[in-house]
Structures are given as C-alpha cells and as structure tokens.
Design a protein that fits this description.
3 copies of one chain form a homotrimer.
Chain A: E1 9-13, H1 21-33, E2 38-41, H2 46-49, H3 59-70, E3 74-78, H4 86-91, H5 118-135, E4 141-145, H6 157-171, H7 174-180, E5 205-207, E6 210-211, H8 214-242, E7 248-249, E8 251-252, H9 261-265, E9 272-274, H10 283-297, E10 301-305, H11 324-334, E11 337-342, H12 369-384, E12 397-400, H13 403-411, H14 421-435, E13 439-442, E14 453-456, H15 466-475, E15 479-483, H16 505-508, E16 510-517, E17 524-528, E18 533-545, E19 549-554, E20 563-570, E21 573-578, E22 580-582, H17 584-598, E23 611-616, E24 620-626, E25 633-634, E26 656-657, E27 662-668
C-alpha cells in the first residue's frame, strides 16, 4: 500500500493574491495555531499570471510559493485554467461556451471554456507547462491540481465539428451510426457526417432532460465528458513532461452528473473531491458520495474542499453546529480520505462567495468558534501522524454506479418521469449504511469476484459483455441483486428484444411482461411470504416466474398475486430481483435475506445508530465510531475497554456518545 | 349515408422499414392472428425515400405495399412530410422553424418545417406527387394520410413576410388593419405593411399566453393555422391529380389549440384523430373529444391512433387495465368512429417512443396480455362486419366549440388568469355525458335549427352575423344557453360597446354591469329559487334584469341579492344565462331546467352510471352500453331481453356490468 | 409652502385620439357631471404625431387641447416618448432593447427604447421640443408628464459601450475598478476598459436575481437608472427651454426596483405615481408606498394613476367594492397627494387594457356604479377647494429606504434566498401604521436630526460617511434601530472586515460572530426579558455583547442563551439591534420600547384600528379618519364633537365607521 502523502494534508484553498501583503504574515501566524500544513493555491489566477497573450508574470506566485515552502507546507498547486482571462474572450470569442439554448456566451463566471476550442487548449497547455517548468522541481509542491471542478457542457459549432470526428472514430461508418441511434425512427437517417447536428434545444432536445434520440444525447454526454477529460490529460501531460513524478489530480464533485468519473479516475493519480452537503442531505448520502469517490480508483482520496462553517450558494445556508465539522471530517477520513482541506482559508471580501465560510472569517481573528474548531481538529490530526494514510476500506458488497446508466435512465421518455438515478442507488446504499455494512461503489467493469454480493439497482443499460460477466459471477457463487428498469437497453440505448429484463432474464429466472407506472398519489400493495404487507411506488414490473421463486406478491391492481420480488438460484449463486420501488422497511426485509445468503457481516455485530467504519492498514484495524444523529447513543459492548486514539482515554461499557461525538479505536490486525 | 370503408379498419401505424426483413413475415403471421386488416405506412420515411435532392428510392416501400396488398390490407398511405430529411436542413436552413423566442432551429425532432418555406413546399408537393403517381391506382390504398399531426407554430422571417401578405388580403387597407387591431393604443399605428412585426417574445408577446395586442396574435394564430392548411391542401391536390377518387385525411388531435379544425375539416375527405387520454383524464373529456372530432364534419371519423397499452410521453404512463382498451375502443365506435387503429403495430427498438406500447411488444410474441386483448377485439370487430359503418349519432343538443374563441379567451389580459376555454366547455359537456344525452359539438356556423338546445359557454368572441343568427334561432323556439364572458368582443377582439353581453344583451334580457374576479382561495355564494344554496368561483357577473327572471341570486359580496343565473323568454324560445362558474351540482340544476324546457331526452329514460350511446343506421339503432366506472353496475331494464351482438347472449334483468364491461345491442329503427 | 396646483386635480389619462369625434363631446358632458377638471393626454401618441421621420402632425392634438382648454381643464401634457413608432424600429433597429437573455427585440409593446440609443435620444428630444414650442405657453397646460412609467433594462451593445464610459467616469483607473469589483476573485481582472462585459445571462448573470459579481451588477443597475434619468432630463430640459416655468414630472411606481427614485426625484419638479395594489396587498403596504413617494422630495405628490374599479394585468382582478375607491383616494390624500387621477377616463375598446376599469365603462353611460362613485367623489373634492393643497405630513420617525441596499441585498449569494428587501422594510413600517404613528420614508442622505428615531432595517450596504453620520445623530440623542444584515458591505459590495456589523459595531455595542440561516420549515425561539417567548425565522445573528444589553435571548439551537435583540446607549442616544426576523408581536414589543425611549407619539392617543393621518397646513390640522378594515369601528373620543368637512355633520361619541367610511376633520393649528 503506497502512501500518497507523508502526513494528513490539512489546509485548503488559499488566495493571498486577493489580499494585501500585510495580511499574508497574519495568515501564516494564524494557520500555525491551527496546525494547518497545506495550502491549495493558484486556483483562479490566470488573469494575474498571464495578463496578456505574450506576458507571463510569476513574481507574486513565486512569493507565495516561497512563503509556504518556508513554512514547510504541502503545496497543492492549481493550474488556474478553470476561469479564462477577459482578454482571451475579447480577442478570441470562440473560447466561450454556447449553452444548451444555443446562446454563445461572453466573458463571465468560471468553467467557461469551450473544451474543444483550440485557442483555449493552446493557452491552457502552455500555462500548465510554464507552471511545471517553474515549480515542478519544488519539493513542497506535493500535488498538482489541474483546473477546478470540471463541469458543464458546451454546444458550440466547434464542439459540433469535434463531435462528428468523435462519432466517426467510434462508429466508423455512417450506417453503423444510423443503426446505433435508430435514426430510421422519424426519418432521421443521415447520409453524411456533416448532416449530424449536436443535440440541444434547437435540435433534438425536448426539454433539458428529454430528447428525441437518447442514443445521440448519451453519446453527446460521453463526448463532452471525453472532451474535458482530454483537456485534463493535456494539462497533466504538460506538467508531467517537466515534473515526471508529480501527483496530479483535479477536484471532482461526488455524484455530479455530467462527467464519467470512473473513466476520469483512470487518468488521475489520485482522486480528490469537494463535499458540500445541504442542511437536509442525509448522512447516508454523504457517506455514499465518499464511497463513490474512493471507489473511482479503489484507493484513498483527498477531500479537497469542505466548508468549515457555512456555504453560500445553497438556498438556505445553515451553520455547521459545534462539533459537526469535526464529526464530518472524521466521517470523511473513515470512508477513505487522506486529507482534510477547506474551502477556504480566508473568507473573501467581495463577489459571490463572500458569504461562504472560511477558516479565518471576516472578523479576521482566531477568536471565533469556527477557528477554534478548525485549530482543535488540526491538533488532533497532527497527533494522529501518518498511521491512517493509505489504509484500506475492505468491503464484501459492491454497489454498481454507472454514468452511462445515470444518463440513459434519466433521458428515457416514459414510463415515469420521477425516476431519478441517484435516488434509486441511494435507497439501496442506505440499507448498508444503517447496518454498518461496508460497501464499495463500483463501476460496471469492476472485478465482481472480489464481492460476496453485487447490488445493481436500475441497471438499465447493459453494455457488451455484461451478461456473460454477471452470469459467470453468479455461477461461481456470487449474489446479484437487481430490479425494475434493468437489462432494458444496450449501450446505444436500443432495447434488448425478446422480453425484459433482456440479458438478465435467464439469470433472474423471470420475464417482465409489462411495467406499470404509478403517479405520486398512487401506490400498490404487496405481501411477503411471511405475511407482512407493504406499499410500493413509482413503477411495478409485472413478472412471470421462469424458475425463480416469489418473495413477495402484489396484492392490488389487476396484477395482484403476481410476483413483485423474486429470488433465483443460478449455478452456485443467487439472483434477487426487486420489481418495484419498495418502502425502506420492505427493502430491508429483502436485503436482510441477501445478506443472510451471502454471509456478509457488518463491521461489528451489534445493532446501533452509530456509524461505524473500519479502515485497515497492513497491520492494524482502525474503527471510526461516529454519532451523526440528534440523540445520545450508547457504546456497543464490542468497543468497551478500547482506547480512543483521539483522546487517549479508554472507553467503558458506560461510555455514551453525544451528538457529533467521535471515537477512533485501533486493533491489531489478525 | 355513404360508407367510407368496406369494413372497420383495424390495425395502425406500421414501420417495417425500421426492421430487418425477417421480422416482416413474423409481423404478418401475428397480425393475422389478431384479425388486423389495415396498416398505416410511410409516416416518417422521407429520408429513406428521398435520400438526396435528386434521388427517390421506392424499392422498400414497394415491397411493403406489395406485402400488405397480398394480405388484402386496407393501406393507409402517409406522405412522410411531417419530418424533413437532414440533408434539407443542411442545404436549406430556412426550412427549419423559428420558435416563439426567436431562435431559429436546426435539424431535429419532427413537425419541424416552416409552413411558409418555399423549399419545404416544393419538396413536399413533389413527394406527394411521386407517391400518388406510384401508388394512386393501388386499390389497397384505401386512404391517404397527409403529413402527421400538423401542429406547432413558426415565427421566422418568411412567415413574417407571408403574414403581411395574408393581412393585406384580409384587410385591404392599412387603415382597416390599424382599426381592427386598435393600434392607436400605445401608439402602435403602422403606416406601411412592412412595419408589421409578427407577435412573439421579441415583439408584442408578454408571455407565451399573453400579448399586448390580442387581435394581432389571434390573427397570427389564424394565419398559422391557414398556412399549415395550405400545406395540407397542396399535398391533397397533388395526390388528387393522380388519384382523383382518393380518400384523403390527416390525423388531428382533439381539442388541440393551434389549428382551427372546423376550417380544416372542410378540406378533408374524412376526419381522423389520435386519442391519448392521460391516466387521470375524465371519460367525459374523452367522449367530448370524440364528439368534437365527429362534429368537425358531422360525419363518422377514423380513430387513427390509440395505444394498445401504455404511452411514453405523459409524466406517468399507467398501463391500460384488462378490458380497458376494449371498452375504450367501443366508446370510440359509439361516438362515431369507423376505424380502430393503434400506434403502433410493433414497438420500436430505440429513440423516444420505445416505451410507447404496441400490438407486438418488445417481447416479440403473441404471448402477451396486450396482444391477446388486441386479437380478441380484432375477432369481435371482424364478426361485426360493416353494419356500423357510416351510422349516425343523432343529437338534439349542440354545444358550440370555436377556435377563435379558444384563442381569444385565453389571450385576454384579465379579469382572471385561471379561465381556460376547454375546461369551461367540458364542465357543460359533462352534464350531458352523465345524463346520457347525446350532444353534437358544433361550430359557430352550424345550422342551429337542427337542435332543440344550443349551449354556448364563454362565447366571448361573436363574429359578424352571429347576433341575428342566434336571435332568429331563439325566436323560432330554440333554447340558447350562455353565460359569463360571452358577447364581449367582435372578431377582431374589440369590445362591443354599450354594455355586456353586447349583441346578446337583448336576447338574454340582462345587462352585465361589472365582472368580478375571484382568486382561487375566494368564492361567492348563491341561492336558487328553490331555496338551495351553492358556491361559485372564478368570475361573477353583476347582472341587471332587463326582462329576464332570476333563477339564482348571489348571497354574498356587495352584489348579494343581484341575479347570478337568469332565464329570458325571447320569441318562442328561451335564453338561459349563467353569470358565474357554478359547481357541478348547481349547473345540473340549471341544465335540468334547460332540458325540461327543450324537451330533450336522454338515450334511454333511466338513471345509470353506465355510458349509453346510440348510433343509428338507415334501419337500425345500435346501443353501446359501457361501464367506464370502477363499480359493478346493473343493466337498465330498458335493455332486458335484448341480445348483445358481441357475445350473442341475451341480457336479463339480472345482468350486471363489471368495470370495462361492454354490450352492443341492436333495435330496428321505428 | 408652495402650492403646485390651484385646485385638487381630478381626472386622469384621456385618449380621445382612440375614439371618433362624436364621442368627444359625450366625454365632456359626462366628465362635467363628475366634476372632472383635469386630463392627462398624449401619453402614447408618438406614432400619431410623428408619422414618419420628417413629418409632425399636431392637428388632432390641437383640437384636444383646445377642447379641454375651453372646458377649463388642467391639462397634464405627456410627451409620448414611452412607446416608439413602428417606423423607427424598421429604419433603426438599434432603438430596440436587448433583454437580459441577450435577445435583441423588435417593434412591440412599450417602454421599449434603449436608453442609450442616440437615435432614440435624438427623436425624443426633438419631440419634446416640438410639443413645448407648441403648447408651452398654454396656461391650461398645468403640468408636463415626460414619458411614462420609466422602467426595465437594456443589455445591448450600445449600453455596453456607454457602461464603459460611465465606469471610467466613476472609477478613473482600471485598478480602481478591479479593486471595487474585487475582480481578482475568479481571476476576472481586466486590463482594459474594453474588456468589460455588461452583466447578463451571457456573462456574469447566474439567474435573473443572482450574479457572480454583485458589485458589477449593482453598478449596472445604477448605470441603467442613470441612463433613463438622462433621458428624462434631456426631455425636461427641452421642455424648459420653451416653457421655463413648466411643472415637470414623470409617473413613478412606488417600490419599483429598477430605478433609484431618490436620485430621480432631485431632477423632478414634483413626484407623481401610479398606485395599483392587488386584491391582497395589505393597506399598510399601500400607505408605505405613498409615504415613500412623498418622501422622495419631502413634498406632496400627484397620484397620477389609480383604477376607478378594476385592473387587468393582475392574476385576479377583483372589483373595488362600493366606497373602496373613495376610501383609497382619501388615504392617498392623507399621505400627501394633491391630485387624484385615474387610469383612465374612458375604457379602451381593444388591446391588452380593455379589461382595465375606467370612469366611463364599456357601457358608455353615467348609469354605472363606477361612474356614480367617481362623480360623487368629484363633488366632494370640488367642495374641499384648495385648502389641503401643499399641506405637510409631519413625522418624528424616519424609515430608511435605499435603492442601493434594495439591489445589493437581493443580489447576495447566501445566506438565505428568501430575504426580500421591501418585505423587511414593510414589516417595520406596519408597526407604525397600526399605531397611527406618522413616518417619513427617507433616503440615506436625509437629515436625520429632524427625527427622534431613525429605523434602518437590513442596512446592508453602508456608503462612505454613513458611519460618522449615524454616530453623530445618536450621540446627539437620536434613537437608531437596525438589525441583521446591516453594516456588512461598502458601496462596492465589499465586506467591512473586522467583524459584523462593521461600521455599526461600536454604535450597536455588539459583535455578530455568525449568521445562521433557517429554511422555511425551521424556526428558532427566543425569550424576552419579561419572560415571554416568541419564534423567529429566516436569519439568526449570533451576537456577543460589547457594551449593549440584551432584550431577548435565543432559547434554542446551539446559540441558545446568546442575545437576539440588543440595546446600546451611545452618547445621548440609543441603538437597538434586532438580530433575527421577529414575528410581528415580538417586533411590536421591541418597537414599543423604541417609541418609549424616543417619546414619539401617535397622531392621537387612542388604540384604534382606524387609520388616522394628520396633514398640517400653515394654520390648520387636517385629520383623515379611515376605516380600511372589514369591521365597523367606533370613533375615538378625541374626535367627538368635531365636524366632518366632507359631510358637514358633527361626529359624536356614538358615531361609528362602517367599512370604507371616511371622515375629514379640521383643527386650528396650535
């Protein structure tokens, strides 16, 4: 197990360029009191360091790097390419994006470069090179941060042309393209690559989330994700040519829809991400996002950004309560982070993020609750040393998360507009979260054999090779869980003919004849084998058993008494199929059976509302015990007698956890 | 009574061009089992049959026509002009539409041709000619289907120019135009035809449904409807020049707002339409739409499209329950259809309609509930033979439906934004529906003398000649029912001065001094002559009696004790005026009086929740008895002893109708 | 005290140009019966009086002026520049505006001129000159009405260029601009004035009410307001050059957001405004708008428009009830109006305002409730003579209303999107309204020393010089009330560092460490010194006392027991700080203390739900007593024995006020 860093990076975005020099030393003094050891710099300085086409100006950045180096910081050096300078828009309007509605933009905001603009590419590459040339050999530059929160989409003419090239590379012939997109439908057959029009509000787009040809729109998402990934790779390679051993990342955004992060992660040295839950985001969703980020490379990740206190861009920006930031940070570490970084270190004086919290608030002093909490956590992390770095999060359950499916499922026209990909995945994740069963979020091309159970909700789009892969996994004893809206289409969004769930039909031992849609005010009922009743929503598969047994039958509507949930033996393994959106209690009943079949165990054998996570290093097991509820909770007996590394105190059977209380316990690995 | 067809057409949209050849014979085999005898083909094949400007390619279509002819199908041959090929957009961008927001579109979707594009017109005409030349003499081509679901609007520069020509033809002088649109208001006077700008979001449009000059926007709707009608006529005439006896239609969409279907129907040989109720559409609304489609020409119509099972483009696409499709089909026949056609015969493999149900589902077999129900209905219809074809739907009540009013009423700025035309008409229709009183939906230029009662809710815009026409109808003994927001404006949307309801004032024997608007949370109360109270909403006319008597007075607000509902003797007839939006119970009370006055009777004299419709041929009366409720309902005694043609069994006093049960009974005509 | 008019102007918008000549004399006859003495003409006649670039046509306007002069009307002569003629758009498309979304508009609607179009400016100035030349010396032209309801925004290229000039005038150097807008943030630094792009949806605008750089967007609002003000001044000066003593106004719109009316009022001879409350607008909000309009110049104002009965452009346009228009008119006079004018005198026959009420309704007779009420009020006002004209509204409380704050506060990104400027001001105003305590709505540059108490809710943006100004006011004994989101930013929207509320910290004797945001479903609780509890919403300041005392502490959330409302002695005065959005009862409790401290008294010392307002002339006090509730209310004893000027009858202890009853009582001034 390779450690990416020598210590837990603790710090965050730092923009001294926005402040007069006298503030810089104040910053250093305050940061020292908080045990801050890292700073992410140069995130939005393109206009500063390249004031015109022909000039580069590094004096200020040199000073910043020097100051931080002197303080022995781990510098996370950004390339500044996420916001273009004004002069570039003025001289080359093509660098701007065209939006979904066909409007070509002007200078403004950020994340505003057309990824296929050659001008943008030329200057972004050159900037990365200049930075790498200058700072590539600085040993304090621990990590390179390309761009920032890649995202959005462009629909300009350059992108249209590049899309055609991308398509030709992919499909080779126009006939293959016509077939893939089923363009015979509505007579959309094209005879020439140049007849292809990108899908937006002026062409195939029906509304932002609906389109006449999902196959085309999914390809456009792939193309857009790839285009930005090319931007990333271009900068990465530019850096690498001057700093061959650089650790290079860019900050991701959890379940952000537009980019296929699994594909991206393959090109990144380490995953980093920005965690910004809302005041009402469930903790299980936060945990799932961490697990997804860890899953991208199956390795520890960096928490590149979180707010010490408050956000600004949510509708309602509640304060984090005392202890909450600490607990949230340990949850992040528990799920695989090796860094805790804030946005930002000093709160900005103007523009749209001035109400976003920071380590140093507008008051400018150490005498704030926020600073005290940051400093206190800094001390704890400092005393932890490097022991956690690189530790694993072992899991026996994998949940598939797949951007192709995310895109495809939400482009479907019918059967039910309320079907949302992340919600469906999260409903399953929540079960494992509440049971303290560790989970890996995995891609469709993961090695399933590592898992006792693979969970694949709404596995709508099933690419080539998936059928044999899943069959072989189950044949060898794997447990596979899937359900409604699975196995429906191939990677071009064309339906697998011959009966749903297509390639999964044999595996699941069922045939889904019809899919009923329920409006929000409607529900159906079902009864489990044990006689308990439940209610279901959204969609109802009408299932015929073809070898499977029913675990629950519908009890209402015309398909009453037909199966709603089934189980099928296949080779040495088992396939569970859940044909409707269950309420959480009912889903729990089914997944309890899945866990029983697969013999997967939770981290510890105890019922508790505490979140308990285990990271394991080569010789040790680290138990994170977190109270993210509003209640005071008892310590499970399993931990009685163990010492909390954070406080040095032994826990007893009487120890209780107040809200946001955290303990970190360590065992020798068996 | 001329029969349009030799048998009930049973089939639907069929797109073998989207499928490999091996599927075609499978289709034929399956369709045979379902007694399918008709197919609508070539609906979206323009790109296929005209791959470039200079080439036509008919080989595949020839094969399809030949195959269907061999199977003795009634072919409904579409002209394919509803979706333009990609090459045409590329070469002639002007063929695309410009939307309400002024954005010129690119290739994409369908119904995408600017109706005033000369390029589009040239190629559409030529395509219709080529098709007619080739297939015009094929006796299996029973019906020509021009384009598909004409609709939408264009706001491009070509349309602007054509609009000016249309206006000059209509108004002759610029002074007449200024007067008609009241352009002196806000100083909008134009001095030259070229100063006229079409009304959209960049000019007079305030929001999509509001405008500064309703007169102009109504004219633009008329113009747009006329422009598309010219497109239809152009193709129709092209077909006719090669197939002089062709039966030519295009499929309409019920109460679709944008096209004046009464004007269109005059140019069509037969009306056809596509019926797609939502999961929560009341059956009375479905029935009203059928009656409207029958009313367009006062003749039987074709049901060109319905889904056998499920739609895809609604927010929630529920399955049709067992029996529902059959019951719905008989309701359609009952209201005047001579065909039952599905969209579509085989479910598409990709693109946005793949979740739209079809006779052959993705499973591809006859072994589905949907197929069995389609086949079973096919057998029934086959055994019915031609006896129903061309039968009348006699009615003594006419309800006016008028697109000019639809447009004008919904463009008004004030008094109440919640006033919706179709809802108002439907509230009245529902009364007759629930009483099983047959109704004709009629245009303003209908012959009123055929009806004992004419119902005219929200007859807001009253064209030239309407006043004497209604007066003469009532004078001769007719019963006329109207109400709030009637008689307000002339055909240019200018108010009839001298007191509301303008030309109807003398007829109704009242003067409406003011119109109060109620917000959704507000209501007024009223009391009927019999002492019962009710609640009313939306708008309240403040009425002075000028000869009329009051049937109900308001009991709240400052106009308490002034009349809300009135009745006026005029000549030999009577005019009822309902000055506010009544609750259904109260409306029933008033319309009961209307029915008593007019001596109109329901189909049978019995209170029942069954829908009962009578169609009459030259010598027979056909009673359709339909249970469209969720309850089991008893058979009215009137039918006891009669034989159900569909089953051959006699009904008894004990016969009951489960949900979706249907019977078809036949009497000799007296 | 100078009187602007010789009598109370009673009349309104009059558009005989929209009517045939025979109607004109009818109008004159009817108006005479209503004691109408004034007409606002020529508001939208540009197309009529300038039919082309080179022609002016005044014949009709001459006739109208002559007719009204003969009838001894006070003519309010508009310049017609608020809607451009069609020919101007055709010939010079640049006169049209470009909207926020970047769409350049075409001919249509009104208020449609780009304020920075030189073509528009040229022709508008010329038109004003021509009118002034022709009618400037007519003694019946009592008032000039420039344009109409200036408003909206333009985002065209001309405006962009003009914006750069405006900015250069303001900031002098590009460095100053970069600093003011904090352009270092997100690397937006500009190096050249031409790199500046105006903020709209294509650049910095995130949504219509959010932006990346509030400082820039606030400057754009200032610029847009200034640009239109230049338009006004240009016409004003053109008129004045031919009519040096003309009284010149333009009609404003209360709390309309886009224009800085305090800046405008400085350029206007008299303020006039259009009062259009909705069916559910609280009367206190109507009163506040009047007080704001009076406050603009600290002088009586004109009510340029109100509807006699009904509006058309609201969602629900209720009728004014009997007596309501009269009561509302007296409320207007009470708050400082010297005119009562209607939109409009005759209801238009067509276009979008035909459902807007008028003195002469579509019935065209005097025999309507509306006409009778107008005529009756006309008689009353006529008999009042000129005694009220120019009378003052003395007040000891000033509430700050400030457009810079309005703009800045609503551009903030965070902490709570539901924070709305006018609502916050109104919540405070309502207290004084309900207590019948007279209030002046004042600008930030008002002379505070005139007031015993100055109320400054959400004084978010604090310009240069405000701190010493407020300090000196309080030091000298003033009472200053402010609260959450105050003292946060300077005039460039950059935060005052060093702890909230910035420059007010010393004054208020507190430090606000954090600002918590509550979602709509959340609330906190607080307890007052007297032991009563209350609930609060929206935002919660977490306050440290630095000299102040707490009047109420939070009792929930982690900051329970920290102060929510504080009071601080400062010099001879006191500062109250309200750190959260209180419920009305709790706010009342605090403001009762404020009133006790300041010794401010209501108009009369009695608790009543009647609205009671006092205007004072040089020797008299006029008491307006208004019942704007739904209940019958007793007369306060203070007025027993006084004579109601309107009826000539003495009021007694038994007099009661039915809803909409009004009395006007007069005392000699002490």
């Amino acid at each position: 197990m390779k450690k990416a860093f020598k210590r837990i990076l603790y710090g965050g975005d730092y923009n001294p360029n926005q402040w007069p020099r006298e503030i810089w030393q104040e910053d250093m003094n305050l940061f020292r009191k908080a045990n801050i050891n890292s700073a992410t710099i140069n995130v939005f300085s393109w206009a500063k360091i390249q004031p015109s086409e022909h000039e580069y100006y590094f004096d200020e950045l040199d000073e910043i790097v020097e100051m931080l180096s002197k303080e022995n910081y781990d510098i996370v050096l950004a390339t500044s390419t996420a916001a273009l300078p004004a002069w570039m828009f003025k001289k080359y309007p093509e660098v701007a994006r065209t939006d979904y509605y066909g409007r070509h933009h002007k200078f403004g905001q950020r994340h505003n470069a057309c990824p296929n603009s050659l001008v943008y590419q030329k200057y972004a590459r050159r900037l990365a090179e200049e930075l790498a040339k200058r700072y590539g050999s600085n040993e304090h530059v621990t990590c390179w941060h390309v761009n920032n929160e890649y995202g959005g989409e462009c629909f300009c003419e350059n992108c249209e042309k590049a899309f055609r090239v991308w398509l030709k590379d992919k499909y080779q012939t126009i006939e293959a393209l016509n077939k893939a997109w089923n363009l015979e439908f509505w007579g959309h057959t094209v005879y020439d690559w140049d007849e292809i029009v990108l899908p937006n509000a002026l062409s195939e787009g029906i509304a932002k989330d609906k389109t006449a040809f999902a196959g085309m729109s999914i390809d456009y998402r792939r193309f857009n994700s790839d285009s930005m990934l090319e931007n990333f790779k271009m900068e990465r390679d530019a850096i690498r040519s001057f700093a061959p051993h650089a650790l290079i990342t860019t900050n991701l955004m959890g379940t952000y829809k537009n980019l296929d992060y699994f594909k991206w992660a393959k090109e990144m040295d380490i995953v980093s991400w920005d965690s910004y839950p809302s005041y009402d985001t469930p903790w299980s969703m936060v945990a799932m996002s961490h697990d997804l980020m860890r899953g991208l490379k199956g390795q520890p990740f960096m928490l590149m950004e979180q707010t010490p206190s408050q956000q600004n861009w949510q509708p309602y920006n509640s304060l984090k309560k005392p202890g909450q930031m600490r607990a949230q940070s340990y949850q992040t570490l528990a799920h695989g982070a090796d860094t805790i970084q804030f946005f930002q270190l000093r709160r900005s004086v103007g523009a749209c993020e001035k109400f976003h919290g920071a380590v140093i608030e507008h008051a400018g002093t150490e005498n704030t609750r926020v600073f005290r909490e940051v400093a206190s956590l800094g001390n704890e992390l400092h005393s932890l040393g490097d022991q956690l770095l690189g530790a694993d999060n072992p899991a026996q359950v994998g949940i598939i998360f797949d951007w192709d499916n995310y895109w495809a499922l939400e482009y479907t026209s019918g059967p039910n507009k309320d079907l949302k990909y992340v919600n469906e995945i999260h409903q399953y994740y929540r079960y494992f979260y509440e049971k303290n069963i560790p989970v890996d979020m995995i891609p469709v091309d993961a090695d399933f054999s590592k898992y006792k159970a693979v969970i694949a909700p709404v596995l709508y789009m099933l690419g080539d090779g998936m059928q044999p892969k899943i069959e072989s996994y189950v044949k060898d004893g794997g447990i596979f869980v899937t359900g409604f809206m699975s196995g429906i289409v191939d990677q071009s969004d064309n339906v697998y003919l011959g009966g749903y769930p297509g390639p999964l039909r044999k595996l699941a031992g069922i045939w889904v004849e019809e899919i009923d849609a329920l409006a929000p005010e409607q529900s159906n009922t079902l009864r489990f084998a044990d006689g308990t009743d439940s209610v279901c929503h959204l969609l109802c598969d009408i299932i015929h058993l073809e070898g499977a047994v029913s675990l629950a039958d519908y009890t209402s509507n015309f398909y009453a008494s037909s199966p709603a949930v089934t189980k099928n033996a296949f080779g040495l393994g088992t396939v569970f199929y859940i044909g409707t959106q269950l309420e959480q209690k009912a889903l729990e009943k089914v997944l309890d059976q899945v866990m029983a079949s697969s013999e997967v165990k939770p981290v510890i054998d105890a019922k508790t509302k505490l979140e308990i996570i285990c990271r394991s290093s080569q010789d040790k097991l680290y138990y994170f015990v977190l109270n993210l509820t509003n209640e005071t909770l008892p310590l499970p007996q399993f931990f009685a007698g163990k010492v909390d590394i954070l406080t040095g105190k032994a826990l007893t059977g009487q120890t209780s956890f107040a809200p946001y209380d955290v303990a970190l316990l360590c065992d020798e690995r068996q």
